[in-house]
Amino acid sequence: MIETAWRSGVRRLLFLGSSCIYPKFAEQPIREEALLTGVLEPTNEWYAIAKIAGIKLCEALRLQHGFDAISLMPTNLYGPGDNYNPTNSHVLPALIRRFYEAAETKAPSVTCWGTGSPLREFLHVDDLGEACVFALEHWSPAPGELTYLNVGTGKDLSIRELAEAVAAATGYQGAIEWDSSKPDGTLKKQLDVSQLKALGWQSRILLAEGLVSTVNLFREHLNQELVRL
User: Fold this and answer.
1) What is the pTM of this model?
2) Which of 124, 145, 165, 202 could be stapled to 210 by a disulfide with Cβ–Cβ 3.0 to 4.6 Å?
3) How confident is the model at residue 227 (pLDDT cuts 50, 70, 90)?
């Protein structure tokens, strides 16, 4: 897709990477310059390598052919259009589904993976959308500058705190238990978003606000599923 955009004369292209591109033991918060300075998190290195390949292709086409390609590296995302599949969704939509269903069935407890201690950062997709438009309209890297920027809130919280916030947003009042036999993954993955902030953009949707609206959307999603059945 990137190469076809260049060959077709697309004026500007924005490629979306992921915070997973950075080394497992990168200094926190993670600066853009940390890319390729250490080993990746083993549980997602395949995904990360694919994203890194995209970033580097954009860089190569920019250097060799002057193709105006830039990249943004978003942190964990949530919001409208998410995947709530019970077996392959990411942490936040998975927690929303689990706690929502537990609240509906009045389950006495919900078991979550790991210890709950890892720290993660979450960005609403509407914020990412605005960041993409902002970058396309206002950011043009000079020769020799990095062609990718981090996008996030600059704030993180523990998975345990996240689970408690999701429980509150879904109205679940039972016990939250933790299965420490399951992997925690990287213990902290917070992005340094100072470069994008210096350009004039920062996130605006607080997690508590975003969770409430996302839970409401999930309820509508379930109702649509029932109508289809």
Assistant:
1) 0.91
2) 124
3) low
**Mean pLDDT over residues 111-129, rounded?**
96
Between CA 45 and CA 20 the distance in angstroms is: 8
End-to-end distance of the chain based on CA atoms, in angstroms? 36
User: What is the enclosing helix (H) or strand (E) of 15?
Assistant: strand 13-16
Strands (E), 119-214: 119-120, 122-124, 148-151, 157-158, 175-179
Q: What is the CATH number of the domain that holds 221?
A: 3.40.50.720
Number of structural domains the chain divides into: 1
CB neighbour burial string for 168-201, b if at least 16 within 10 angstroms, e if fewer: ebbebeeebebeeeeeebbebbbbbbeebeeeeb
Give the whole-number percent of the chain exceeding pLDDT 70. Answer: 98
Q: How many CB atoms lie within 10 A of CB 1?
A: 9
Are 99 and 110 within 8 A, CB to CB?
Answer: yes
Cα 54 to chain center, whole Å? 17
Determine contact, residues 78/210, Cβ cutoff 8 Å.
yes
pLDDT band at 225 (very low <50, low <70, confident <90, very high): low
